[in-house]
Amino acid sequence: MAHEEDGLVKLIVGLKKEVFYEKKSLLVTVSPHFERMLEGEMACTERETHTISLPNIHPNTFRHISTFATLHGSADTRTVEEYIRNIPEATLLPAADQSDDKWDQWDDEADQ
Q1: Cβ neighbours for 49, distance < 8 A, ≥ 6 positions apart
Q2: Could you tell me which residue ranges the BTB domain spans (predicted)?
């Protein structure tokens, strides 16, 4: 599916407002919500500004979602399975932004 002006979309994620850039085509392909925001008939400022705010998603969770979405289009399912198996503490990924000391400490440990 061709996407008009298939450029980058700016995503502002979490309480600390970490900025990510993703291809519009990836976002609308993996999410009907993003498709409605960026290409639908809704009167969304996101369609005009190509900027989406996701304050309730933790940045680390978004990183994994983004990577998984990118890998999901891959024909090599072993790559996806390997990525999922290697997510450290996968069951502890916060679903919502819980940017308190507990999660910040976990982030630091995961980066080491």
Answers
A1: none
A2: 12-65
| 3-class secondary-structure state, position 34 | helix
Total-model pTM: 0.67
> Which residues in the chain come in under a pLDDT of 70?
1-6, 42-43, 73-76, 88-112
Does residue 43 lie in a domain region?
Answer: yes
Q: Quote the mean pLDDT of the chain.
A: 76
In this predicted structure, what is the pLDDT of residue 3?
Answer: 46
CATH of the domain at 39: 3.30.710
The token pair at 106 is 């976990």
Alpha carbon 35 to chain centroid, angstroms:
14
Report the alpha-carbon distance of residue 79 to residue 28 in Å, rounded.
Answer: 22
